[in-house]
From TrEMBL:
Keywords: Membrane, Transmembrane, Transmembrane helix. SUPFAM superfamilies: Nucleotide-diphospho-sugar transferases (SSF53448). The keyword Nucleus does not apply. This is Uncharacterized protein. InterPro entries: Nucleotide-diphossugar_trans. PANTHER family: GLYCO_TRANS_2-LIKE DOMAIN-CONTAINING PROTEIN, UNNAMED PRODUCT. The chain crosses the membrane at residues 20-45, 378-397, 417-437, 449-472. It comes from the Bacteria.
Length: 495
């Protein structure tokens, strides 16, 4: 078992790099617009060309990912699994950390597991509450244990104590406590670690019926299945017909990003609800308890523990989750911003990677460079691209008076042409989002299909307000040492 934790503030220089990069870019963009506008125009054209090509590249992967997703949905994975000798030896531990969620949300999560196309006597359910909500959690847990009595191989609950040294309140610290308590249960029941698979779900997650069969099948058939995490397609569709348009556009954007990454799994990390092996969790010392982005860090823990011999296997099956939803419009927008900022706080992985990769020759130099570059480039463009495309990119044209050269005279038309090409991405996204929507509820008229298309006109706004701004916020906080705590995404009551 290894201890991976690197506390905030221990490596300030590495923490400052992302923020320095983005603010240097913004200062140069503004300064060049006033003092060297012609150079700024050339830079903007080159950047927009790069971004246009990147959008087209992204769309190709999304379309191919969608085709793979549809094909995967048509397969009876449980039937394929049953053809494998001794497949029954595999048990699934499902971790469900919760904090103040409504009873119906917890109930729905368990029903989706029970109704999976998989043997219920191979599920071990672990539901973990927090001491700060102990009374409410214990009440719900007792009702759920009675409701699902005898339906799983095991159903245990844990209560994570508050105020433990070296922790910050959040999902990661709760998961670590759950895993430590689960290990005691496993050892008591003498279950072999090599036969145990683990799925860490946000508690609002509803699994596809074939999820666990597909997971088991891949684990048993891919090369070295023990050295892999397993990533589904995350669809925020449980309440997608209820939430506001900016939220729908934002969460579909997240889904499309994840689908494109699944087609390039050699570079991806785990995100949100996903699966892994129990042996890996034990080997890395379980989830780290003092950070926000535990879902992606656990992949890095495995990658470093096994000296680069660790990867993500795409499942190409969905899990269905809740989009953020507040009590009113502005509360919902605030919740969306905080969620995006929490995701952007994945910038916290850079110091960890640089310290752990430094001098580790057991991981190839190419792999180390690739992961560091992808982390820096991804966080940098998340914060800067919308700003340069939709705001700062227009500044030199307002300043520049002399447009006598052909380049400067034609540059607005060049940019407009590239934007029109990039707009094709909006139409593709709108089309795919319609195909991914759940059945229209009875309280929504047919006109809502039109709304679901027109809402994509908000993409530039969401790209800025709920993309660049929270990313800038997160990276600036990291740069100045104002560290972010875990913000729980509120889940509204279900009817």
């Amino acid at each position: 078992m290894q201890e991976n934790t690197i506390p905030y503030g221990k490596h300030r220089f590495w923490e400052m790099i992302p923020g320095i990069l983005i603010w240097t870019t913004f200062i140069l963009a503004v300064g060049m617009s006033f003092f060297a506008p012609a150079i700024a125009v050339v830079f903007i054209i080159i950047f927009d060309l790069y971004w246009t090509l990147r959008v087209l590249y992204f769309l190709i992967f999304v379309v191919f990912a969608y085709r793979t997703y549809k094909k995967t949905m048509l397969v009876d994975w449980y039937a394929k699994l049953q053809k494998i000798k001794n497949w029954e030896r595999v048990y699934h531990i499902v971790l469900l950390p919760t904090y103040k969620e409504d009873y119906q949300i917890l109930y729905d999560a368990l029903v989706s597991i029970r109704e999976s196309n998989y043997r219920n006597d191979r599920f071990i359910i672990v539901m973990g509450g927090e001491e700060a909500d102990e009374k409410n959690f214990i009440n719900y847990a007792e009702k759920l244990k009675e409701e699902f009595k005898g339906q799983f191989a095991g159903f245990t609950t844990t209560v994570h104590p508050k105020g433990l040294k070296g922790e910050i309140p959040g999902k990661g610290s709760n998961l670590k406590w759950m895993e430590q308590e689960t290990q005691k249960w496993i050892d008591k029941n003498k279950l072999p670690y090599k036969d145990l698979l683990v799925t860490a779900f946000d508690v609002d997650t509803v699994a596809h019926p074939q999820y666990f069969a597909r997971f088991s099948y891949l684990f048993l058939t891919v090369k070295d299945g023990a050295h892999a995490s397993y990533q589904p397609v995350v669809l925020y569709s449980n309440n997608v017909w209820k939430v506001q348009a900016p939220i729908r556009v934002s969460v579909f954007g997240t889904t499309f990003w994840l689908m494109s990454e699944l087609m390039r799994s050699d570079r991806m990390w785990t995100f949100s609800s996903h699966s892994m092996t129990w042996q890996m969790l034990v080997d890395v010392g379980f989830h780290e308890p003092n950070l926000v982005s535990e879902d992606s860090r656990i992949f890095l823990q495995g990658f470093i523990r096994y000296n680069g011999d660790y990867r993500v296997e795409p499942l190409f099956l969905p899990v269905y989750m809740d989009a953020v939803e507040g009590v009113n419009y502005w509360d919902s927008m605030k919740a969306l911003y905080k969620q995006q900022r929490r995701w952007a706080w994945g910038v916290e992985h850079l110091p960890y990677m640089l310290e752990r990769f430094k001098g580790n020759k057991d991981i190839s130099l190419w792999k180390r460079m690739k992961y560091v570059f992808n982390q820096i480039e991804g966080m940098y463009t998340w914060a800067t691209a919308p700003m340069l495309i939709f705001l700062l990119g227009y500044l030199p044209f307002f300043v520049l008076q002399d447009t006598s050269t052909a380049l400067l005279a034609n540059s607005p038309f060049t940019l407009q042409y590239m934007m029109e090409i990039a707009t094709a991405g909006v139409f593709v996204s709108a089309s795919l989002s319609l195909w991914l929507l759940p059945k229209r509820p009875k309280d929504r008229s047919r006109w809502w299909w039109l709304i679901m298309i027109l809402q994509w006109a908000l993409l530039p706004v969401t790209f800025l307000v709920f993309g660049a701004f929270p990313a800038i916020d997160a990276q600036t906080r990291m740069m100045i040492g104002k560290y972010l705590g875990f913000n729980v995404t509120e889940k509204r009551k279900r009817g």
